[in-house]
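In response to a reviewer's request, we include the raw inputs and outputs for one of the modeled complexes. The two entities were modeled together in a single run.
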Amino acid sequence: MAASDEQLMLAYAGGDAAAFEALYGRHKGPLFRYVVRSVKARGEAEEIYQEIWMRVVEARVRYRPEAKFTTWLYTIAHHRLVDHWRAKGLALVSLDDEDAATPEPAAGPDAEPHRAAEARETLERLAAAIAALPSAQREVFLLRVEADLTVPEIAAATGSDEEAAKSRLRYAMNKLREAIDE
Amino acid sequence: MSERDGDDAVARRYRELRREVPSAALDVKVLAAARSAVAPPSFARRWAAPLAAAAVLILAAGVTLQLQHPEGGPSAVQEEAVQSRAKKAAAPASPAPTPQAESGEIPFAPRRPAEPLPASPQSKSPEGKTEAAAAPARGAPNPLARGVVTPSAPDLARAQREAADAVRGFGLQSPAAGASAANAAPASGPFSIDQATTAGVQVRIVEPR
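The model returned the following structure tokens for the whole complex.
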């Protein structure tokens, strides 16, 4: 039976470098996509990604398995992204009020033939819609689909309350569903 | 399609997007940093701090010792000071200095007749060393007589004048006036002070404590 993330992190804090390699292999893809789709510029994303792992390494002795390792990891990542946005003069704000006026999209008809070309177009629209999301909604969406966090875990990682996290996720999903149903 | 089905469709479509992964170079950097963070310290790293602390302690102790006991040591310094003092005290034990030399060294030395004095028979120890403190020569500056000075001639003259003025002001007559008529000052008044009687007066100046 494979060791859990928490066991691997504790083993690494005890000096087991191989445990970190296993942990890194599990989370490097989702974390990298979370960062690169939040920041967009690949160079900056790689720098932030590396710093997040460095913070994990430095914080190994303070790690306590009271929460899921993934929640702890993405909390660190969230803080690093907030630092990045602050340095750029941006703020992680949600446009929930503005989005509240957006009507719920109606369910579209099923796809017709020519699926290959249409699927490619759909994916392009989805990527564009993700990039166009307000940063707070995009972050919640990425934490849901990349890190596989639940709403309470997303709230914990982003330091918000569950209602706000749930609301942001709903608005993000609605916009993306509308994009792929066009 | 329900909201949940819609969310699942979005998630499924999302996973069809290009799956970016970090570059191999980035993986190597992160893993190397993680490995070095938990690697046991090398011999140099392990002993660098204790060795540096020991070196600082030794250096500090050396500097402290050097400051407390400068070159030659305290005994040598004290011995040198004693010898220097003995030489100074022994110098007048030889033939008395000339008044010029004396006045050159000690401006307030007593002005006594410059008669050569024989050296004290005890001024030389059997070993030939000078025992200055035991028998200081007459007329030599006594190192223990600090603060005792004799007035110079101008000071004496001024004191005589002031005393005479004071006596004259009170209408008194000096009992020694008649006896010292021959040495009296020029007729400046009915009273004069014999210079011979005041020549031996010593003024004691007590140093404040």
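As requested, we also summarize the result in words. Chain A has a mean pLDDT of 86. The radius of gyration of chain A is 18 Å.
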